[in-house]
Design brief:
57 residues, globular, mainly alpha, single chain
Length: 57
């Protein structure tokens, strides 16, 4: 029972993270994003931001 419950929770949590991630990506397009070294840069596209964030994770 616990395993099934845990799996459901993980899926829900992943969906929440995706929503937050998309929202952050959208916001970063407008306001710039940290490059991971304490600098804020502007990026051309959400894809570029997501690639950079993926490297930082």
């Amino acid at each position: 029972d616990y395993k099934e419950q845990h799996t459901t929770t993980t899926v829900d949590f992943t969906e929440d993270l995706k929503t937050i991630h998309d929202e952050l990506a959208h916001r970063n397009v407008e306001h710039g994003v940290f490059d991971g070294k304490g600098h804020i840069r502007k990026y051309d596209s959400p894809e570029e931001i997501l690639q950079i964030q993926a490297r930082l994770l």
